[in-house]
Amino acid sequence: MNINQEQLLMFQTVMETGSFSAAARKLGKVPSAVSMSIANLEIDLNLNLFDRIGREPIPTDAAKVLYEKTQLLLIEMNQWKQHAHALSNGLESTLNIVVVSELLHTNWTDYITLLEQNFPSLAINIVSAPQEDALQMLLDQSAQLALMFEREQLDSREQFVELKREALVPVISINHPIAQLNKVSFEQMVQTRQIVVASRDNNIKPELLFSKEYWRTDNHHSACMMIVRNLGWGVLPLEMFNENPELKKKLKILEIYDFTPKFEYYVDLVWSRESNLGAAAQFLIEHIRKQRKDQI
């Protein structure tokens, strides 16, 4: 059986127009070519698709069943050809993006939507990870792009473009003794257990670690749950309070004597200089660069 896309298209057109001659006019072919193609298709399938009793061919029950399948098959074949064309023009087969867990509350999905609109056949994988793990995923090339906070020290292999600023704030359960104070000292915070979002690798020291005693977790959701349960204080995205006003009834943003309790960081789109980025990744990088240029 050797059925090609042109045969399926002719079959579909005959079904939709009701005759070989009408299908030929629509496809820009002579009626004999359409009739011959349908006849060959019937031979390949060992099926009678049309009864040719009157002036116009009458679809058989088998033709009606196959017509529904044909529409889906032609769509898939066109998508396959478009995807193959995109791959031949540099589109990556899969784009892996890691989002630092504290940034899951931001509008990062806007960028994914943009990619889907411009590269509908692209397979995209999204994972979340602590800051240190996200960077390692870039460097070992298990991810091509990362949305993460600015780093105190840059690895020579990384490259980035700034997106915006995001704020993190120190918080504690309203039931904790420290929460009863109008202001706390940095020394009091250091002496209180901290719930810190950190790498899964215990050998990597968390960047926002202040307390002598601390518990680790790899995402800010579990950190928030532990802080609410009065297990320690921690640093969480301010955006969490905006999206979940109920947190304001359970957590208190700490006021500190020595400095304003708000950590503002740039959020970067980061990639490795050693990665051979595909068309979609390069498109997103250039889009963000243009956004920044337009804002200046």
Describe this entry's structure for a reader.
The protein is an alpha/beta fold. Helix content is about 40%, strand content about 20%. The protein contains ten helices and eleven strands. It has helices spanning about 5-15, 20-25, 30-45, 60-90, 110-120, 130-140, 185-190, 220-230, 240-245, 280-295; strands spanning about 50, 60, 95-100, 125-130, 145-150, 160-175, 195, 215, 235, 250-255, 265-270. The strands form two sheets. Strands 3, 4, 5, 6, 7, 8, 9, 10 and 11 form a nine-stranded mixed beta sheet that branches. It has a two-stranded antiparallel sheet with strand order 1-2. A hairpin with a 6-residue loop joins strand 1 and strand 2 (about 60). Helix 2 packs across helix 3. The protein is elongated. The mean pLDDT is about 85. Belongs to the LysR transcriptional regulatory family. Keywords: DNA-binding, Transcription, Transcription regulation. It holds the Pfam family LysR_substrate. InterPro entries: LysR_HTH_N, LysR_subst-bd, WH-like_DNA-bd_sf, WH_DNA-bd_sf. This is LysR family transcriptional regulator.
Helix content: 40-55%
Quote the average pLDDT: 87
Total strand count, please?
Answer: 11
* Low-pLDDT residue spans: none
* Structural class assignment: alpha/beta
Strand content: 15-25%
Number of H- or I-type helical stretches: 10
Order of helices and strands: HHHEEHEHEHEEHEEHEHEEH
Report, as a whole number of angstroms, the end-to-end distance. 62 Å
Q: How would you sum up the major sheet?
A: 9 strands, mixed
Radius of gyration: 30 Å
Family: Belongs to the LysR transcriptional regulatory family.
Protein name: LysR family transcriptional regulator
Keywords: DNA-binding, Transcription, Transcription regulation
InterPro entries: LysR_HTH_N, LysR_subst-bd, WH-like_DNA-bd_sf, WH_DNA-bd_sf
